[in-house]
Design a protein that fits this description.
This protein is about 75% helix and about 0% strand. The chain has helices spanning about 5-30, 35-55, 65-80, 80-85, 90-115, 120-140, 155-170, 175-195. The radius of gyration is 16 Å and the shape is globular.
């Protein structure tokens, strides 16, 4: 499969997953539909926009309206299927984790396509995966998850390192992406389930 097509598919899946997460957070704060859409689009395109600006290329969502449409579909999904989603109290966490992993991979692959070294690609993957969540939390007046002690951005970094190792071992981009996705999600799920966290800074 063409590398550019793979990136676009991953970005669309990540956009939908992150948009669902952002809209669910907005619903918990009782935002209206427009407010929910703004939160959804912010988390869906925020990280990728920062990445593309840093890489000196046109932000991905400005090349086609499909990402804005995808976020609208996510909004309608939450609106019309909220009764089925409501019992899933941790649904936002699942969608957030899926978006985190998918966007991390998209950031890495796009950076490599533009000729960046792997260490830069891993950083860009981390920014793509986690920066949108920071923007979402700021809009919702919440403390950004990335600054909590729980594993979040670190999952992006470790997933990126796994991607690099798989490529070094000779695996294709497709299999490297699949394994990286699984590892990133597993790290995030296990860290939350078993309360694994980084040490806290102390001021005295």
């Amino acid at each position: 499969m063409d590398q550019e097509l793979i990136i676009k598919i991953i970005e669309l899946l990540g956009t939908f997953a992150f948009a669902i997460s952002g809209i669910r957070h907005a619903a918990a704060k009782h935002f209206d539909w427009f407010g929910g859409y703004v939160c959804g689009i912010a988390v869906a395109i925020g990280g990728g926009t920062i990445r593309d600006v840093m890489l000196g290329t046109t932000p991905f969502w400005m090349t086609t309206p499909v990402y804005l449409i995808c976020t609208a579909v996510a909004l309608l999904t939450v609106v019309f299927f909220r009764k089925w989603m409501e019992p899933l109290q941790n649904a936002w966490f699942v969608f957030d984790t899926l978006g985190l992993a998918l966007f991390t991979i998209a950031g890495i692959q796009k950076s490599l396509t533009l000729g960046q070294p792997f260490w830069v690609a891993i950083i860009m993957g981390c920014i793509t995966g986690s920066a949108g969540g920071v923007i979402r939390d700021i809009l919702l007046n919440n403390e950004p998850v990335i600054f909590h002690k729980e594993i979040y951005a670190i999952a992006c970094v470790l997933g990126g390192v796994v991607y690099w190792l798989m490529v070094e071992l000779g695996l294709s981009a497709e299999w490297s992406a699949i394994i990286s996705f699984i590892v990133t999600c597993a790290i995030r799920f296990l860290a939350v389930k078993y309360h694994i966290s980084l040490p806290l800074l102390k001021d005295n």
